Amino acid sequence: MYDNYGGGRKTWLEDTASVHDEAYYEEALVDKGQYLSLDLHSRQLDARGLDSFLTPGFSELLRAKLKAKDPDAESYYIDVDASENQMGPQAMKVLSSFLLSLHTGGPPVSVKSLRLYKNGLGDEGAAVVAEIVLEQPAPLIELHLSHNGIKELGAAIIIMAFAKARKTSYPFPLLSKPTKYGGCWLRLEHNEISRPQDLVNQLKRAGATGGDIRLVETSGTDEWGADKSPNRATSPRQAPHVILNLFHKQTPGVWSANDWSPSVDVPRHAFAVIEKVSKRLEDRDIWTRLIMKAEAEDRSLLPVLRESNDFTARWRKQLEMAKHPEQEMARMLRLLQKLREQQFPVEQFWPHYREDLPPGIRRPDDLFRGAGAYPFVAPRDIPKEALDLMQLRHFQQQRQQQQ
């Protein structure tokens, strides 16, 4: 729902009233003094439930409460507890999309503590969690992922993501004492990692494949902890990226010691996954920039871009493949401008070319219907820009009919 939000703006209550009453959403935002907490703990939320909960209207409510706490803040931290739900990888994608959306549209909102234990995420869900690590503009201080069926690859993806973060740095200055540095306090115990110490040894040797990754293991009472480090950690090189707490405690009985061999280079495979995730995030950044430019020029252009359909999917792909994304972005904005000005040049060419089209294509809008729709049946002599405009108008007319 969040990625597809478009059309007329709804109030938060209109956006959510069909699912729960206002009090249900209000109680999910808990004021814990310095920080606001999003409490979704044990609400039996699956992908559909999260999608109906984490709407753009709910985002506006969250931002309003943050602004009320500190009107002049340039950025915010929140805690998120979504533990003990029915999430799995698909619901994790919904949660990640929502949290990443909080980075734009106002002062960026980052997650300080993220609790996701007992959610059946597996390795696929771990790769989605890595998106948050890679993309946050501020460090993630705590990450709780115990009891999730995560195996060696998923654990390596999470751990190595902290060394490859795109928009912040690990280790980071502690919130409680900025003159000292620390790493993310990560809980991955009670998963399905058959040889935890062998994996740790591989990760410590992973410089050749994934870059520099430093980690320490703790048992909960050590000098390293959540926003905690020894006095000697006065520079980033003296601190780890990750503090692995109780990592040696894995769930017995669900795996065999022969399930994984230390001869398998897990960090190399994890690094390949992280590279793919990073590329996808870069592509998303390009599309977000297009939407932000459209918003700056004319908010009336936004509904077309925020919809999810074949046309927006094709534009996103074009931006991803473009050698010069900024030029392609400018071209798309010019098309939207022409749409607003009701300029539809396809109709200049239509009388001449309509006889050359396949049976059933007798009107301009027929180009965009059915399995054989443009760009596959369009005559090559009609300018691509004209066809783009016609498809834009088609989707605009569809929306008007639905309203």
Question: What does the secondary structure layout of this molecule look like, with pairings?
Answer:
Elements: H1 12-16, H2 22-26, E1 29-32, E2 35-39, H3 47-53, H4 56-69, E3 76-81, H5 88-101, E4 109-115, H6 122-135, E5 142-144, H7 152-161, E6 172-173, E7 181-182, E8 184-187, H8 196-204, H9 207-210, E9 215-218, E10 242-245, H10 266-297, H11 302-306, H12 310-321, H13 325-340, H14 346-353, H15 384-402
Parallel strand pairs: 2-3, 3-4, 4-5, 5-8, 8-10, 9-10
Antiparallel strand pairs: 1-2, 6-7
Helix pairs in contact: 3-5, 5-6, 6-7, 6-10, 7-10, 12-13, 13-15
Radius of gyration from the alpha-carbon trace, in angstroms = 25 Å
Helix content: 40-55%
Q: What class would the helix/strand composition place it in?
A: alpha/beta
Label the overall shape. globular
Q: Uncertain segments of ≥5 residues (pLDDT<50)?
A: 1-19, 370-378
> How many β-strand stretches?
10
Query: Which strand-content bin applies to the residues?
Result: 5-15%
* Series of H and E elements: HHEEHHEHEHEHEEEHHEEHHHHHH
* Spatial strand sequence of the major β-sheet: 1-2-3-4-5-8-10-9
How does the major sheet shape up?
Answer: 8 strands, mixed
**How many helix segments?**
15
CA(first)-CA(last) distance: 18 Å
Average pLDDT, rounded to a whole number, is 79
